[in-house]
Design a protein that fits this description.
- With 158 residues, the protein is an alpha+beta fold.
- The chain has four helices and seven strands; from the N terminus they run βααβββαβαββ.
- It has a single domain (2-157), classed as Gcn5-related N-acetyltransferase (GNAT) (Aminopeptidase), CATH 3.40.630.
- Strands 1-2-3-4-5-7-6 form a seven-stranded mixed β-sheet, sandwiched between helices.
């Protein structure tokens, strides 16, 4: 497995496929990763505010993180996505990507990383993952994504 902190134009379709492979994301979310990755490629990390790390196997992206500074804060970053292709989950790839993100955010002056996920049963493994890497649950917003689909917010230090 190779890891890199720069997005390539050839990655865009693969990032969408990674999201689709999980069965977790709504179609609109798949389109958002397309939009954010293209913005990163066109404007760069600083101007777009979207930073990507990619894990690849045999030159093909199989996992990624997307994060960025939160405007109006001194040292907070949002983790927009951390996604591993369904065929490779549970192999430690997500942990490596999260460590990369934490190190990069710290270098950029970040202190707090805010992470959110759904409360739907489908996301129970995701919730366990966040807790296993040291995230602390700080809030749960009822019916945020839809009826019975709460938004769970975690914080982890950079």
């Amino acid at each position: 497995m190779k890891y890199r902190n720069k997005l390539k134009s050839t990655d865009v379709a693969h990032l969408k496929e990674i999201l689709i492979s999980t069965g977790f994301f709504y179609d609109s979310e798949v389109e958002i990763v397309d939009e954010l990755s293209r913005e990163n490629l066109e404007k760069g990390e600083e101007e777009s505010g979207y930073i990507f790390n990619v894990a690849e196997q045999e030159g093909i992206p199989v996992a990624f993180t997307c994060y960025g500074p939160i405007p109006g804060t001194q040292s907070s970053f949002d983790l927009y996505w951390i996604v591993v292709h369904s065929s490779l989950r549970g192999k430690g790839i997500g942990k490596v990507l999260m460590q990369m993100a934490q190190e990069d955010i710290k270098k950029r002056g970040g202190e707090n990383i805010w992470v959110e996920t759904s409360s739907r049963p489908l996301y129970t493994p995701t919730q366990h993952f966040y807790l296993s890497i040291g995230c602390i649950k700080v809030a749960e917003l009822p019916d945020f994504y839809g009826k019975g689909d709460n938004k769970i917010i975690y914080r982890i230090k950079a």
